[in-house]
Records
---
Amino acid sequence: MKRWCHAILVCLSLLTLTGCGDQLYLENADIPLSVGLDMDDEGNIIVVYSSPVFHEEASKKTHFEQSTALSFRQNRKLLNSQSQGNVIAGKIQNLIISKQMLKRINAFPILDVIFRDPKSEINARALVVDGSLEDLQNISMEDKGRLGIAIRDTIDAAHQVSSTVLTRVIDFRGQMLDNRVTPYLTEMRIRGQDYAITGTALLNKDGKYATSLDQNESSLLLLLQHQTEYPLQLPFTAPLQLPFTTPPNMAPSDPTMSQMNVSLTINRYKISSDYAQGRFHFEFQVDLTANLSERTFPFDMKTERRKLEQVIEKQLQQKLERLIAKIQHHRLDPMGLGRVAQAYHYPIWKQVQNNWPETLAKADIRVTPHVTIKSYGITF
Amino acid sequence: MEMPEKGRLSLSQFTFTIYKTQVGIAVLSIAREVGQYAGRDSWISILIGWLITMVFSLLIINIMKKHPDKTLFDILPIYFGKWLGGAFTLVWAAYGLYASFSTFYATLFLIQVWILPNTPTFSLYVLFLIPVYMLCRHGIIAIGHYSDFVYLFCSWMPMLLLFSVHDAHWLNLLPIAAEGWLPIITGVQSTLPPFLGFEMAFILYPYLQEKKKATKGVLIASTLSMMVYLLVIILANIIFSDKEIQTWIWPTLALLKPIQFAFLERLEILFLSFYTIIQLMTVIPYLYLALRGLTQLTRKSAYHPLLLFMVAAIAVSSLFVDMTNERIERFLDWLSHAGLVMAFGFVAFLWTVSQLRHLIQRRRAM
């Protein structure tokens, strides 16, 4: 009797299981891998997306869809009615925001649906695109595979060689909500049938586009942010004062004959801070290990190594200070110096926290890099 | 009155039952709830909350020591007489019922939001009530065994959170106590409800094999809970800014969401699925507590029918009560208040009474 009771109970509970009630065939699903956001002249939001096509009969592998509405979610409804299957937002690999839109409005409130829906993919890479999003369709994918995956992989690869920052959608949210830092996103350019990562786009505290950094400046920003996941790749130019000999038939001033590239890893990173005479003072003290990866001029590494280190130190300092001046000029703080100010100068921070980028613009920021060349490969 | 229980609880079962009752739904939102008062100093608040909890756990053991073979419901009539004692028993039973019901609702709501939005509520309720029924039916020894299992089976879960640490800003924890100690002390009030569950010692104590180790057991249980909470709070604070923590309803799940392995995405689903196992370990002991109280008031044989009735009541209630974000928030809020009164207020009161009684008895003996 007891056993029967159990059996019946089990059967009853199994009956209530939904099982395959809400099954989803891959062929019927429309899974955007890349989603783009733009704005038309009337202020409506344009959503563009590309998704892979799994139908055997379809000749094209990628499917593009575009719609215009007042919000992201309204667009999704429109897109659902345009596309063959159900639009599934859970696999988005990158979120592309147009630069034109960022120049006009703060795009962050529009992204609300991404954070509200637990199913959405908040690891998607956030990037800014210079150019019209309609050009996404023109990118030739014959040698690349799926667009969304290809863009994601390009961003990750560019980040590994320190050409750009890596900001996921969730990181972007954190940057927007934190008043101690201003947002930074990967920047991409579409030209004709191709795309390329150009560096980093910096947004101001209002979420609007402020300025762009090229690839080398992006490396320097990663250095200031202490992003040490990957070594930083940086080019330097050997100045004429260096005791190097040029090959015969070449002028020493020939620029291609005085290049070197190093990859830098951070050994010690310290920001000392002070508040005096009504302004903040910050000093980055960075000890770096350099690996020489390329040198196009002959040079005696054995005896003159320190001179080369000094050249790198000096140029690095100049470049960093130029970058900082640019950042201050645009009233930004992608380095997150606000965190330092809050942690060590709390009473003053409380007064200036709502006006932090302005305050930082007046601050005195110095960098003292110390470089040691650890290795120069297998040739002298 | 002794329940028909075979066997006794080992120290680990005693400890883990309390520990797993404590770690419940609160672990998901604790960073926000303490953070709204104490901000980046939440970790200090949790340490203070932990100390307070330990004091109250010791009070319980102190009361129980005087009556080594009795549960709370056997003690209440001795102290307060039949009627008042009965009234207190009823209040405790009501508290147990409320705690288990509201935790169950909250768990199921969470599962519906995060994992199974399309599954009918009723069938989910029925499925989750089966283990509740089975464990409660077999009483305290089964619950003790289950707690051992839960501990072993889910001990990896806090470790998983550590994967989120790689873009942490340790500076977020500075400056310490910049706004003075008042916010930290205010924050302590919301660190106490997550420690609720130590009052389970009232029921577990008579079954413990070696009574001398009870003190050790309650202290270890609260310390294990504290470590989990501390980990969650510190991680949330170094990864999110103050403001951002307040924007997530469940900051702990937000910590998990970005973690991704090459072979696995949406880790929080895996986490939540395992988490239900822990959650049931909060629902079941409280339901058991309530049923023990109710059988005390009626008769021993009423246990099984009452259990069936309660389980059926939960299942049927799913058809009538629609859960919303605010309702769950309100339920858990009331539970916190009730818990503060019952587990902290009542324990202090009972301890005072037992001390006085002890004193008077000793006088009389002299």
---
Amino acid sequence: MSGTRVAYVVEPRFSGGTSSAVAAELRVMSECCPVVIHARRSAMFGDTQGMAPVLHQTIDALGLPVIWDAPEISADVVIIHNPSFLKFQQAFGARIFARQLIVVTHENFVRPSGIEAFDVGACLAQIDSAALALRKCLAPISTYNRATVQAWLREHRTTIAWDVLDADWFNICETDVAEPTTTPRDRRGRHSRATREKFPPLEQLDLCFPVHAESNVLLGANFLINADIERPHWTLLPFGSTDVDTFLDMIDFYVYFTTPTWRESFGRVIAEALAAGKVVLTDPDTGAIFGDAVIPCQPSDVDRIIDGYLAEPSRYVEQALRAQPVLDSFSAASFRQRLCDLLTNDAEAAG
Amino acid sequence: MIVISAGTRNLRSYDAQLVFATQLAERGHDVCIDAASLPEGTRRSRTYEAASLLVDRADISPTAVFVLGADELDDPFLSTLWEYGLGSEVPVVATGRFEDQQAYLAAKAKLAFSLGREAEVIDLCQSQPRAMLPKAVNPLVAARAPRARPMGRTPVVTVALGSLETDEEALLPHLSRLNNRKEFRLQVIASGKQKEQIKSTAYRDLPVLHLTELSPVTFAHRSDVFVLFGQGIAGERMASFAINLMAAGGAVVDCTENRAIVETGAPALRGPESLMALENYLCGTVVKSLGQIGEQVAHSPWQRSIDIARLESAAGLPPPEPKAEPPHRKVVFFPTNGVGLGHAQRATVVAEALPTGTDVTFAAFPSCIPMILRRGFDCLPLVSRSDSHETPIANDILTYRRLQQVLYPGDRLVFDGGYVFDSVFRTIQEMDLSAAWIRRGLWPDSPSARIALDREHVFDRVIVPSEAFEELNDHYSFGNRIRIVGPIVKQAERSPQARATLRDRLQERFGRPFDKLVVSMLGGGVASDRAAHSQMLSALLAERPECLHLIVVWPNSTVSPTLHNWPNTRVVQTLEATALCLSADFVISAAGYNSVHEILYHRIPAIFIPQSAPYLDDQTRRARALEERGLCSTVEETDFLKLERALRDCLDGTAAESFRRALEAVELPEPGTESAARLIAQDWEAA
């Protein structure tokens, strides 16, 4: 175990991927070095929302100390997860002292059109002005996320030159790929949280989930249900109405497109589908981090691609198994190695 | 069509949609509001305002979409936007007042997620850093189109009372003084409570409007000067009115306690905070300098910040084309149907007397249409009020829409009716029509009569057809627009020979000879049920084979089938009742304006049975005036014994002859038909 002291600065009330990612990361990190959690109550969630259950359970299970809204945060390495939690406030509200400050950029800095996804400059400025550190770094979590961070840095002036870590600060994922079916059927589906950006325009959804498919299951389709979208050939399930494993058992092809004006920064749902032995079709940006484990395409290509796999089931199996090496790279072991490198470098820098 | 939407669904947003949509429509754009965005609790005036703009979702094919109030985008709206499934060729322009960059980016993202592409989001804080209302949903823009000031011969000054107390002792007398100034015409904007207070005082003649009674665009179109009192600007409509007026080179006088308008940099005048000082300020400084003020206002750099063209250009809308010249000006008569066809009949009599070549059209309810067509006029059909409609104003909204379709600015609307419908009230002002109200007297003493007077000020002329006898001519309002003319009466000549011929034809038609022809016209039973009277008359006349009794009703009237069984009685549905009356020995009639005056001017003996209903004129008073002069017999509706006696007096006694002699001798005022027609044909501006 390293003697490097690590402080995690998180807004623990994020209910989505950030909290899940941090929870998974803490399990690894706590094995490597002493960790303190600095929880920040930001203006983003008001006063009523509590800590995300996944994070709460993990912190409890690991027995990690949690300090709420400390006026001062001091550690060898301070890791701030998802700076977008600062977007509704004017100041960070604490002083940070560290040799190395790492800001993990869970959210893309710009959207596909090049427009800022949130007021990145204001959030980074809050952190910068609060932190006294020898090195201040941004840690992208995926290929696409890295591209948005770099694009933002190219377009915007900041008070300091933020370093960008070379290796992705990826989300830790389940790595055991289930045995893919050898007799795939035209059973399609998608799963996401129920927010609007996760869905493409209706005509694209129609292309992805056509009437001639054997089944189309859309989990997390709350807003389609609320909008009274009538497609008798769709099974619309509200978010959380069934567990993900059951849902994945209902499909052979995971077809995932978002609105063209937004992209997943990592794509945990895709990793889950790959781990379940499904063939995944998605847009090239979202699929970039998964390499050849996913089929990059457009909604208009979906039918043709699926027809091809149905005609040659062996190709289906071959494709599904391509996920294994990719998922291995997102394993806890890989992350541990990533951390060791980081902490070693930090110790060397400390002399 | 261009869809005007808002980020949230509430009254404030809806108001903003209405105003902005109206502004774009004024500039010739095809605009609509999704009917699904109509918020709960929309009141009467907004329903009218929206009538021409609302389109059902299924009928909307957007060519551009404006999103107002994008600083607050709720989920139902974002769902709507997503459901529109707009193609990439449809521009989407959103306006908002964003607190910071994050709020701007958040709005941009939300719209992008719903559209699947980027919308153009305009932060109004950039162009209007000191907006009149920092949180306004309304983009507070206007068409920059300075007009010569004053617009008409007499400038119009609109005063918004704001938070001034109308029960303050000196306030109403001062407003009254302003109202009597010759240098300008006053219009007052008051809250509902203020208006109610004013109307309950001796100053009820003040022309008072509520701010929602008309669109801010219409208010601005009809004002040269807008004066605001109180603390701040009372809402987005008020701000929009001020901005629209300044964009048109009008004068806004900021008398607010906190200098709410001048502080924004708008080219408004700073006026006195006290209403008592306004008269001198207006007369001494403002009204006589309207031209110069307009010049200064039009050239103010502030105008750029409110230019609607910027939003049009963002949406790629073509610049508005000059409005096509309307077809040659026409006169449109709109008679209400009331109980009988009195209003319509009077209107046709006046229309017939208009100079040859006058383009005349009617808009009328179904019961009047056959009569109007028979007189040779075109007629736009309207829909009568019905209990089966969803709301009591449903038919009037349709009337409003149809009037807007048939009328063009500069046309003349002649309304003949007791109550000025919202459709009429709004159309006149919104379309800048010249308008006359043919308003007969003898009003019942009811609140509705006073309400009717509230709207008199929108008419350029109020033509009052007088009663034949002076004691019946009450005066309800005064002023330059009132014109009293003689009784408007349809006059027909009938020679003794023609009378004999018609009687012969009736004998032939009904297959029976008669010596005496009795015509009864007791009305269609809408106001008062006269079935018993008709039955009684028919029964009494059944004993008299020498009599032919004609029950004359309008076509399509409901007639009791039992009336057809009486031996000497026949039911006649006709539009030519006058011809039958002229051939009758005497007539039994209700005492409406037209019936009485036609009988009087044609000197026909009559028994009158006045009708009574809260919304009718005072028929009893009218009939009594004739009876007191020995010109007729008058029978109260419940006095059946008197009716029998009066009938026998006419048939067996000398009553009919006595009435005839008195009628021959009575001096009647000159009919007013020609005068009314001349007034309607006149150029009022020049006059």
---
Amino acid sequence: MHNIKPETGGFFPRDRNWHPKAYTPDYKTSVVRSPQKALISFPNTVGEITGPMFGHDLLGELDDDLIYNYAKPGESAIGERIIVYGKVLDERGRGIPGVLVEFWQANAAGRYRHRNEGYLAPLDPNFGGCGRTISGEDGSYRFRTVKPGPYPWPNGVNDWRPSHIHFSIFGTGFAQRLITQMYFEGDPLIWQCPIVRTINDEAAIKQLTAALDMANTIPMDARAYKFDIVLRGRRSTLFENRMEGN
Amino acid sequence: MVQDLGLLKESASQTAGPYVHIGTAPNFLGTTGVYPEDLGISMVNDKTRGERITITGRIIDGTGTPLRDALIEIWQADSGGLYNSPTETRGAADPNFTGWGRTPCDFTTGVFTFETVKPGATPYPDRRMQAPHVTFWIVARGINLGLNTRMYFPDEEKANAEDPVLKRIEHQNRVPTLIAKKDGSTYTFDIHLQGDNETIFFDI
């Protein structure tokens, strides 16, 4: 890491028309879980500007390799081998170094390893479905996994989730905290999914769709998908620091 | 024509879904052997300074039913009012206090619990002081974008009355939705997603 004083400015306001609204009745569960009163706004205070950071000592050797991190010795998860890579950026386009990225997903058959999961597709004894990594100096991250399968879910009579990987991303301030999902280029289920369609803006959905990257595909091994994640930007700190007396 | 600001858009949020435990609390779920322990389950150790407290509660939907598949994170100052973060510029926080906790709600009862310390007061941007509070971030199936709220302390009446965030709330009759109930060292904070007692949520 460079010995640069961390940025401590307030964050750009969240564009709540770009994000999905709380009340999205076609995604039925949102109906009784969506606050109905207006959110109360206030300027970022120190509790929003700061956030937890995690060191590399947190990470195990296989945390970024879902093909092997739950597999018995000598075995590996079943499915299409893929590498997901990209950068954690802020809205100014700058890479955010040193932030924790967590991911979880269904197995290649579309089955989650979870006590509340009821889909009849089989579990893979060698696939747990979770991983994590910390972004590098330029915000870059990568992990290896199998491509998750699509699966049916109880919402409408015949709703199917497109293949997707869940992401949890920490920024450098708690107001950047974000959970989202990555979709795969070319999946016809994307545009039919009630959860995807909680987002009103087509461009925002495309931003969540990873591109197949044949240039970075490893021949005879694993296809690559590129997925950049953008967190809220910080305002320039020059004057704000002076205000705070720093 | 003018210059392009060159800004990107924040990635749109999507629900954490019903299986958020797989990625964030696998040991709680019973998926062992990947991570030694779930991140955020412990905020304090034997050397942590300050008054030990327990924060517990439930998240209740519009039908009165507790959520049993939600995940909660809290973020708070240490007992001296400092955050354990590289972006804290006012001083060094207690190294034996993480300030950050994470737990799923119980699969049967929906109850969540954090063992922590009571935070100190922190400044508002204009240097007035904010009453001690704990920031909550809630994600779950059916929640499209994580919900932010704050828990305040019932034994801080004077500080609460002067808190710049609480004071800017137009409908002061809603302020009690942000104040926990105290029983000994345990503070109970039930979060109502809808209804007459809908908790105040913030756009931060």
